[in-house]
Design brief:
By secondary structure, the protein is mainly β. The chain has two helices and 23 strands. The protein is about 5% helix and about 45% strand. Strands 2, 3, 4, 6, 7, 8, 9, 10, 11 and 13 form a ten-stranded antiparallel beta sheet that branches. Strands 1, 14, 15, 17, 18, 19, 20, 21 and 22 form a nine-stranded antiparallel beta sheet that branches. A two-stranded antiparallel sheet has the order 5-12. Strand 7 and strand 8 form a beta hairpin. The radius of gyration is 19 Å and the shape is globular.
């Protein structure tokens, strides 16, 4: 059998930082020395250098353990695009609780993140520093944007660019007593038509949880993001082949351990244009608009698998059945 047509759209690695990026990191560490014991492992990276034509950027990192006593992991900056920063718990008994504390600045407010969450960063919103204050159990961390390559404008070094951004901070506090807390999403949105909370019947051996999700109804201007843990058993997501009028990315990540983060404990496969692709390690699958795909199958999962779907769209209802 010859090579499969879309094999190049399945990414199983991260990429090395460029010399320019390394220089920027070194400069930040000189200006803001970090005292930290947080251990981490860069897992996956997506952009148009990994998949030509891709209109999504994503970096995935496992944070294993440790604490940060001083210094910054990231300096304040802004973007001219929507971004999502996320933290997902790996605790099968309490998947909403991170078992960690992350500190992030949104606008002029400091927020402490202790639950699985998606932080929606509207275009032009000043954000960061970001600090991994305490990691008591593994946390899946990522940054994500519907752009071909990541880029940013520093709020310190380009103040004129910051002034030109269109973001207008909320004038009034929300139920949390803050103006920016509304951009921190900690709950899932039902997959059922019309948002009905009733779930479809599940296989008897399946143990799974939808963790957190985002779209423009949840936070105006946001794009679609959804995270599900499959702890054990078998299931089929989206059993019917279909296509979209937007680009989609599907992520599969094994809940491994340091040095073993890419292992998938079970059988995972996805059909793309009628060809079945076996997902044998942690992967990002890029699906251009108009490409028939699914079913997405999980069989005999013996160690947890994190599945996430991302769409370059504000609402998932634009799905087009085949």
């Amino acid at each position: 059998m010859g090579p499969q047509k879309y094999a190049g759209n399945i990414i199983t690695r991260t990429r090395e930082y460029t010399p320019q990026e390394l220089k920027m990191i070194e400069q930040m560490l000189r200006e803001h020395p970090v005292e930290t014991t947080v251990s981490m492992e860069r897992l996956l990276w997506m952009d148009n250098q990994m998949v030509p034509g891709a209109e999504m950027y994503m970096e995935c990192i496992w944070l294993w353990s440790g604490e940060t006593k001083s210094g910054l992991m990231e300096e304040p900056h802004v973007h001219d695009f929507e971004e999502v920063i996320g933290f997902i718990s790996s605790d099968p008994d309490n998947p909403k609780e991170l078992g960690a504390v992350m500190e992030i600045n949104l606008g002029d407010e400091i927020h402490y993140l202790t639950q699985s969450c998606l932080v929606h960063i509207p275009a032009g919103m000043k954000h960061c520093p970001l600090t991994f204050k305490e990691v008591r159990r593994p946390v899946f961390f990522f940054t994500l944007a519907p752009i071909s390559q990541y880029g940013r404008t520093s709020g310190f070094k380009n103040p004129e660019a910051v002034k030109k951004t269109a973001f207008v901070p909320p004038a009034e506090a929300d139920a949390s007593g803050t103006r920016y807390g509304r951009y921190i999403v900690t709950r899932p949105k039902s997959h059922a038509p019309g948002g009905n909370s009733a779930e479809r019947p599940r296989p008897a051996n399946l143990r799974a949880n939808q963790i957190v999700s985002l779209d423009s109804e949840v936070s105006p201007g946001a794009f679609y993001v959804d995270f599900v843990w499959i702890w054990s058993g078998s299931m089929t997501m989206s059993p019917q082949p279909h296509k979209h009028d937007f680009d989609e990315m599907i992520g599969i990540a094994g809940a491994g351990s340091p040095g073993n983060a890419r292992r998938i404990g079970g059988e995972v496969s996805i059909d793309i244009e009628g060809e079945k692709y076996q997902i044998k390690e942690s992967s990002l699958v890029y699906l251009p608009k108009g490409i028939d795909h699914c079913p997405l199958e999980f069989k005999d999962i013996t160690s947890p698998v994190l599945c996430f779907t991302i769409g370059n769209t504000t609402r998932w209802e634009t799905l087009k059945p085949v």
